[in-house]
């Protein structure tokens, strides 16, 4: 298969670097265009990230000879790539306008940024859950008068820690009415340089700006439906979230308590829940997308798992690793979940979104 040429916006930042490394030797995509801020424009990529390459492996050979372009000039990407991954780091209004400018030039945007997550006709994708939201792209293009361009985004990284197992239960006929979530989020989620070492060593920070609002609301869009050319949010579950930053490099953990919207005699047993999780697969697995985990949900029987250092790279960092499923004395059940925030929750999750879009013909 001939690989598709792709670009990376925000290519010199932490997430942009992760995209570039993860796309090395990708069977479908090849990085042929990199763009960043004007201060990096005109430099060869290695020079632009000198003393700032954070991935812990060499810069891919395909990218070493690429000259960084100004991400604020979408026309520069024409003819260089079929679509772009957006890892832009700027104000939300600026990102929203710039992603729209790329789409207007006929360049689809697969975004890691949060700016368009609440745009009604922009799908916010976890491919195992809401692949049907791709249907809204036709209305998005019609609304803007775009021909080939469009914008698709991924949700907040911490949601991907637990949304797939919750969706699996909903799909199996066990709707969730209410839930509480306490996240223990890795420092890499704050980007680079992120939270200072003085704040994180021997410490936990019990606040991440805007994170609790995202946790409580984004799940409702993910579980929503496409109606009348826009995504209508679901009404349940009602979510109460507490989000904390902990001294872990990679891997977001969440403690989750669920109440099912079912009569007592219809609520699932622990054994039924485990069976649902063990058997769950979805469209990415059916399509055998290159970045899709064979097992989207992996359950650990050990009483002290999952743990970030031991479990974050399960299924190449793309699985939701679950443990400690047990009865809850306030709600119905509770469990601990873990995912790799810079892989499933960021760049590799964005790549999986692009693989789904390609498989469905959106780059044709």
Reconstruct the topology from this structure.
Layout: E1 4-9, H1 14-22, E2 29-36, H2 45-48, H3 61-64, E3 69-70, E4 83-86, H4 92-104, E5 109-111, H5 127-130, H6 136-144, E6 151-153, H7 163-171, E7 176-185, H8 197-200, H9 211-222, E8 225-227, E9 230-232, E10 238-245, E11 252-260, H10 270-279, H11 283-286, E12 297-300, H12 308-311, E13 320-327, E14 333-339, H13 347-359
What does this entry show, briefly?
The active site is at residues 157, 252. Belongs to the aspartate-semialdehyde dehydrogenase family. By secondary structure, the chain is of the alpha/beta class.
The number of distinct β-strands equals 14
Which structural class do you get from the secondary structure elements? alpha/beta
Estimated helix fraction: 25-40%
Largest sheet: 6 strands, parallel
**Coarse shape:** globular
Number of helices: 13
Q: Over all CA atoms, what is the radius of gyration?
A: 20 Å
Find the CATH superfamily of the largest domain: Dihydrodipicolinate Reductase, domain 2
Domain unit count: 2
CATH architecture of the largest domain: 2-Layer Sandwich
As laid out across the biggest beta sheet, the strand order is: 3-2-1-4-5-6
The string of secondary-structure elements, in order, is: EHEHHEEHEHHEHEHHEEEEHHEHEEH
Overall pLDDT confidence: 97
């Amino acid at each position: 298969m001939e690989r598709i040429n792709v670009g990376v916006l925000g290519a010199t930042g932490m997430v942009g670097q992760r995209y570039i490394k993860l796309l090395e030797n990708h069977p479908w995509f090849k990085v042929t265009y990199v763009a960043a801020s004007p201060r990096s424009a005109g430099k060869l990529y290695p020079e632009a990230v000198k003393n700032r390459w954070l991935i812990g492996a060499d810069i891919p050979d395909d990218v070493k000879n690429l000259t960084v372009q100004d991400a604020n000039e979408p026309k520069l990407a024409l003819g260089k790539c079929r679509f772009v991954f957006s890892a832009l780091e700027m104000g939300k209004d600026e990102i929203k306008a710039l992603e729209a400018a790329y789409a207007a030039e006929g360049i689809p945007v697969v975004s890691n940024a949060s700016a368009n997550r609440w745009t009604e006709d922009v799908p916010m994708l976890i491919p195992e859950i809401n692949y049907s939201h791709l249907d809204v792209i036709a209305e998005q293009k019609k609304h803007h008068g775009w021909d080939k361009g469009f914008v698709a985004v991924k949700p907040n990284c911490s949601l991907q820690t637990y949304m797939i197992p919750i969706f699996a239960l909903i799909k199996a006929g066990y709707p969730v009415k209410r839930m509480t979530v306490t996240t223990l989020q890795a420092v890499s989620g704050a980007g680079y340089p992120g939270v200072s070492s003085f704040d994180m060593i021997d410490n936990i920070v019990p606040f991440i700006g805007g994170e609790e609002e995202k946790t409580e609301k984004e799940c409702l869009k993910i579980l929503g439906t496409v109606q009348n050319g826009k995504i209508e949010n679901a009404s349940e579950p009602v979510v109460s979230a507490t989000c904390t930053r902990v001294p872990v490099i990679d891997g977001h953990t969440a403690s989750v308590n669920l109440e099912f919207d079912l009569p007592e005699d219809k609520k699932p047993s622990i054994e039924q829940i485990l069976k649902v999780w063990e058997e769950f697969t979805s469209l990415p697995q059916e399509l055998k997308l290159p970045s899709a985990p064979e097992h989207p949900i992996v359950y650990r029987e050990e009483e002290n798992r999952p743990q970030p250092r031991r479990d974050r790279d399960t299924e190449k960092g793309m699985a939701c690793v679950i443990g400690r499923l047990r009865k809850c004395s306030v709600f119905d059940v509770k469990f601990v979940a873990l995912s790799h925030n810079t892989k499933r929750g960021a760049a590799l999750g964005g790549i999986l979104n692009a693989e789904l879009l390609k498989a469905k013909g959106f780059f044709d």
